[in-house]
Every structure is written in C-alpha cells, then in structure tokens.
Amino acid sequence: MLRFSVLISVYINTTRDDLALSLTSLMTQIRRADEIIIVEDGPLQAEVTATLEEYSSKLPIVRIQNPKNRGLGLALRDGITHCTHELVARVDSDDCSLPNRFLIQTEFMSRRDDISVLGGAMQENFRVGRKTRSALRPGYSTGKLEKTVLLYRNPLNHPTVMFRKSAVLAVGGYEHCPFFEDFFLWQKLISTGHKIANISDVLVETDVNLDYFRRRGGPKYAKYEIDLCKKLRQKGYFSAFNSIVFLMMRLPFRIMPGPIRQLLYFYLLRKQASC
Asked: What is the value of pTM for the model shown?
C-alpha cells in the first residue's frame, strides 16, 4: 500500500468546530494518513491552537508555523516541501473526508502511475432559508479535462484531490493567486503534459452558507479573476480569445446579487443529491 501525506492549511479565520470536524474525519478513515502536515499560516485563534494540540496526540500531525499570514497558495507551497511521501492528499480545514476517501484514492493512484492529480465529487449541504438541501459537485470526466473545460470551470474539486508531489514540484508548485491557487496549478500541469483525472465517488462533504456566495462575488473577487486571466495570458496558457471567453463566462456571476448567485450555483452548477 502506498504511503501518503495529508496537507492542510489553517489561518486566523479557521474555527475550532470546523477544524475538529475535519480532523475527526481523518481519524475515521479506513486507510489512515501516514502523516498530516498542518501549515499554521500566521497567528491562530487560541481555541484553534488548543484543538491542534489536542489532536496531535491522536494523529500523526506535523505543525509548520508561519509567523505571518502569506495566503493559501504560499502556505501550501511551503507545506509540500515538508511532506515526506510522494502522494499528497489535500484536505480543507472545514471539510469532512468520507471514511473510504483515502482507500479509494491510494488504490487508484497505485494502479494508474500515469495520473498526476486525482479528484472526485463533493456533497455540499446548502442552507436555503430554514432548510438544508444537498447537492453534488462532480468533477469533470477525464476526457474533457484536457480540452476546453479549463476555459470555463475549475475541472477539479480542490478539497478532494490527491496528487504526486514530484509532479507538482516539477511545475513550480502552488503560487500566490488568491482564490485560484488550484486552478492555476492545474493549468501548469496540463500545459506541461501531466494527466489529471476525476472519479465519480463522493469523497468529501461540506456545509455551505451564505458567506460562501458572498465571497464569490463583488468587485474584489472580480479583480482577482481578471488578475488570474492576465497571469494566464502572460504565461502563454491563454490566448486573447481564450481570455475574452473566460471573462465573459465568469464575470456576470461576480456582479449579480448574492441571492441570485446562490440560486444559480445550487440549481444550475450542481446536481441535486438523491440522499
């Protein structure tokens, strides 16, 4: 069985309850991680630090402390260098990894040494009024990943991925690219001939609140999206035409009112869960 590392980043807005949920899900894995690298990106809430200390006696946690917050991209860039295994699983500090997640992914990666990054589906629990509705966020089929899908949507659900450390380091790792650290990394990998894939299994469950939709709209988010597009053009990943299509497809979502964006995300960009 292939050994693997888990990579997590926490920061000042990480909450005790979310982190405890995430770390507890790592304890219930059928195939447990061989090490868990947690990058503390700047100062943390005292109760989050206490939670890390508590779970360090239950899990093989290695804590990496950054004195200042540098952002997710650079935190993950640092964290990868501390991972001692070739396979690395990304875990968000507020998501629940389902018990069979790592077993499924390690078995797949052991069979397919041609795949550099493997993602899967997520179950998102949306709070709509007083009710909670579940929807699935699938990853794109492998056949579409290396064609035009990168012009429109992120092809992988970042909290579900397991990747080969050597492949990610070969293209320079994560970079500072707010909100789009993963998207830019997938572009670099595909552009250099690396293969990425998705499986249909639901690997991660997460709760989604109104803050999720607020963060994905407004002038600040739109600016980050434009900056991403410029960076893709500078690196030669996008043509001028690609850039126009990319922004035309995405910017309308950023400037529309939050409630409308919520409805579109839930009913248009997700599949209704049967559970």
From this structure: 0.90
